[in-house]
Amino acid sequence: MHELPVTESILNIVLNHAKNHGVKKVLAIHLEIGELSDLEDEWIQRYFDYLSKDTLAQGAKLKIKRTPVVMECKSCSRRFEVNIKDLYEMKCPECGSVDCTLVSGKEYYIKSMEAI
Amino acid sequence: MDDIKLIEVKEEIFSDNKQMADGLRQRLARDKTYLLNIMASPGAGKTSLILKTVDLLKDDFRIGVIEADIDSMVDSKKVAAHGVNAVQIRTGGFCHLDAAMVTKGLNAMDLGGLDLIIIENVGNLVCPAEFDTGAIKNAMILSVPEGDDKPLKYPLMFTVSQALVVNKIDYLSIEDFDVDALRTRALSLNPDLDIFEVSCKTGQGIEEWVDWLRKELETFLA
User: Fold this and answer.
1) How much is the pLDDT for B1?
2) Residue B125 belongs to a domain with what CATH number?
3) Fewer CB atoms near the end CB (10 Å): N or C, chain A?
4) What ranges in B64-205 are assigned the alpha helix state H?
């Protein structure tokens, strides 16, 4: 639903880096997006194709890596990955506590880009 | 043929918004104005909760309300009728508020001397969760008719909120809604979440919610 402003933001950051590095064309962009995000990969690409027309990033492919939901147990500090479907039944595999904090899974990160 | 270069970008996609939101929080800390962001689905009772809250706090605190709506002025008129300063932001199709839009809303208000500004975000459990508005705290409302399974469908919203108001508990007798299951589900995503069970219609539970906000304000303004 909010892919458009997200995509705009990606494009602005990428074009900024493209300008600073004096590149001719951006070929691919590597993103890391947390599993908790509702963004649809296909729609980000579609919006990106639309917004990037006539820019250095026209035609660039978005390569999206989903970063898993990782929790940390408050009692024993054990870190563990949780499948998003199992969030309800989530408990620490070490001590069984359900009192845990979210360590990752909310990322919105542009890691790198490939360019010529 | 040109060689392909790999350029490290290492930037948060929302870095601009985050920066603006952090700047806004600093400004609010200087001005001693507490900003509360309220998020919920359409019809969960955002405006009703704001009106109840305003009525109970307006004798002790100076309050303003920012109403966000895709394209109407209905809510701000209702709020202004309760005697508080209200600004309507029409998001023009956008499904959320971001820090830039909130800054505009604040600039349209006479901030001087306001203790509390409540933002009524756009009715939606998805998009508003992704955008930092610059608020000091986020509160979300879930109403009983929506169902107790919402933490599974909208986990992000439950992790970015510090308070969860379960509204329309007067419907509990006719709905298949398990409050304990909801608590377990919400707390497993966010163990620090403060949960309040209220009915804006009957007034049940409103006091506890308002006490939470009153304590927040007293700490912030001290």
Assistant:
1) 61
2) 3.40.50.300
3) C
4) 74-80, 99-107, 150-153, 155-160, 179-189
B205 located within any domain = yes
Residue B48 CB neighbours (<10 A): 19
B67 touches chain A (CB under 8 A): no
| Range(s) of the domain holding residue A52 | 3-115
Q: Is residue B10 part of a domain?
A: no
B190 touches chain A (CB under 8 A): yes
Q: Which residues of chain B have pLDDT under 50?
A: none
Nearest CA in chain A to B12: A109
Mutation target among B39, B188, B190, B193 for the A interface, most CBs of A within 10 A: B188
CATH number of the domain at A8, please: 3.30.2320.80
Q: CB distance from B180 to chain A under 8 Å?
A: no
How many separate domains does chain B show? Answer: 1
Interval B6-30: pLDDT, tens = 999 999 998 889 999 999 999 999 9
| pTM for this prediction | 0.87
Instruction: Please tell me what DSSP assigns to residue A52.
Output: T
- The CA distance from A99 to A112, in Å, is 35
Q: How confident is the model at residue A55 (pLDDT cuts 50, 70, 90)?
A: very high
